[in-house]
Amino acid sequence: MKRIVLMLSAAILLSAGICAQASAKSMPRQRIINVVNGFRKTDGFEVVNIGRFGIFLMKSAAGLSADTEDDPELRESLKLLDGINRLLVVEYEDGTPRQRQLFNDRIASALRDCDLLMSARDEGSTMDIYGTVDESVGLVRDLVVFTPDDGALVCVFGKVSMDSVAKIMEMN
C-alpha cells in the first residue's frame, strides 16, 4: 500500500507542472459514483466505498496504533488523509467481457472532459490518472486511477497537499 501511495505521489508531482498550464476542469464526482452504483450488485464487480467517517476511523486507528512523534513519515501520511473525504475502489476483473466493456465505456465517458495527469502503458495494460491540480494553493483535488485492461478503478475524492506528498517522497 505504501508503495502504491508513493508511486501515485510521484506521478502527481511530476505532472503537476504540466497540468497547471491547462485550464483546470472539475472531476464529475457524482457521475462516477452513479456509474459505480449501477454496477454495485453485478456479479464479478467488487466495490469498496469508504466515506468521511471511515477515513476518520482509519486515520484515528493509525494514529493510535503508532507513536507519530517518533515516525515523521507516518505523521506526514496522516496529514495526507486530512483532506480526503471519500475513497472508492472498484475491482471488476471477474466480470463478463460485455459488463467490463460497458463499465469501461461509461467511466471513460464520465472522465472524457477531465484533466489527464498521466497515462502509462505496460505490456498491453493501460493506467490513466486523472485529477485537478490547483497550483495556487498546492493541492490536487479528486484523483482517479483507471486501469480498464486490468479491471480496476480507484477514486480518491477530496484534497491532497502536494507539499505533504513531496515530504513523504523525500523521506523514502
Describe the overall structure.
The chain has 172 residues and is α+β, with helices and mostly antiparallel strands. 47% of the residues lie in helices and 28% in strands. The protein has helices at 2-21, 29-39, 52-65, 72-81, 97-111, 162-171; strands at residues 46-50, 84-91, 116-122, 125-134, 139-147, 152-161. The protein has a six-stranded antiparallel sheet with strand order 1-2-6-5-4-3, sandwiched between helices. Helix 1 packs across helix 6 (162-171), helix 3 (52-65) packs antiparallel against helix 4 and helix 4 (72-81) runs antiparallel to helix 6. The protein is globular, with a radius of gyration of 16 Å.
Structural class: alpha+beta
SSE topology string = HHEHHEHEEEEH
Largest sheet: 6 strands, antiparallel
- Average pLDDT, rounded to a whole number, is 81
In percent, how helical is the residue content?
Answer: 40-55%
Order of strands, widest sheet: 1-2-6-5-4-3
Beta strand count? 6
Give the CA-CA distance, first to last residue.
14 Å
What coarse outline follows from CA principal-axis ratios?
A: globular
C-alpha-based Rg, rounded: 16 Å
Q: Unreliable runs, pLDDT <50, ≥5 residues?
A: 1-8, 16-23
- DSSP summary: helix tally: 6
The portion of residues forming beta strands comes to 25-35%
Signal peptide: 1-24
Organism: Candidatus Cryptobacteroides avistercoris
Pfam family, one: DUF4252
Protein name: DUF4252 domain-containing protein
